[in-house]
Amino acid sequence: MLEFLLPDAPVGTLALTVALSYLLGSIPFGLVLTRLAGLGDIRQIGSGNIGATNVLRTGNRVLAALTMVLDSGKGAAAALVAHGVAPDLAPFAALAAVLGHMFPVWLRFQGGKGVAAAAGVYLALSWPVGLCTLGVWLAVLLATRISSLSALVAALLSPLFAWYFAGPDVTAVAAILAVLVILRHKDNIGRLRRGAEAKIGAGKK
Asked: Rounded CA gap, 150 and 116, in Å?
């Protein structure tokens, strides 16, 4: 049994950590930023997703970059704060933050795909894992200009990076997040198989 499934922290502390991490992760920065910028509801634009890739479809690169930074930051913050309380709480906080981003209570559990939040989590739990995962994501994105494909490849490889650079706790978190990210990209996978997935900078097919 993996060590992170049996934390030493009291149950109450664990529950509070998970709840607060979920709430932090559920802040929909893409939606908030586009509304503040007067661009309307991001859910009515492009793919309808609240993440940075869809924010980019508004034509505002600064907002897209800021969305990515903030979404990554909330995942990292949840893991780092929990680690400061008790190191064995960090994996739980990491997972809760990404789940909050994917299924935010404020948006009827219709959130983002968790890519940026997961990247922040990896950087916080093990910076080599985070850098390798981001490196793969960027390399595939530059080669293909397909955001979903870069996210899927990075998600699939992240457990291998975690196994090599970190311990079983981080590997377990990476494996769980990889499954979640893949499931959230179900429609994208269908379009990739048909050759119909939109590229960044190109019109949506």
From this structure: 12
Residues in the chain with pLDDT < 70? 1-7, 202-205
pLDDT at 2 (0 to 100): 45
For position 36, what pLDDT does the model report? Answer: 93
Q: How far apart are CA 147 and CA 77, in angstroms?
A: 24
Cβ count near 184 (within 10 Å): 22
Place of tokens 């979920």: 22
Contact by Cβ (8 Å): 40, 34: yes
Distance CA 140, CA 116 (A): 15
pTM given for the model: 0.91
Which pLDDT belongs to residue 5? 60
Question: How many other C-beta atoms can be found within 10 angstroms of the C-beta atom of residue 47?
Answer: 18
- pLDDT, residue 57, reads 87
Say how far apart CA 81 and CA 42 lie, in whole Å: 30
107-119: b (≥16 Cβ within 10 Å) or e:
eeeebbbbbbbbb
| CA within 13 Å, CB half, 126 | 22
The answer to whether 129 touches 166, Cβ cutoff 8 Å, is yes
Residue 93 and residue 109: Cα distance in Å, rounded?
18
Which residue blocks in 26-167 are alpha helix, DSSP H?
Answer: 29-36, 52-56, 61-85, 90-102, 115-125, 127-144, 147-165
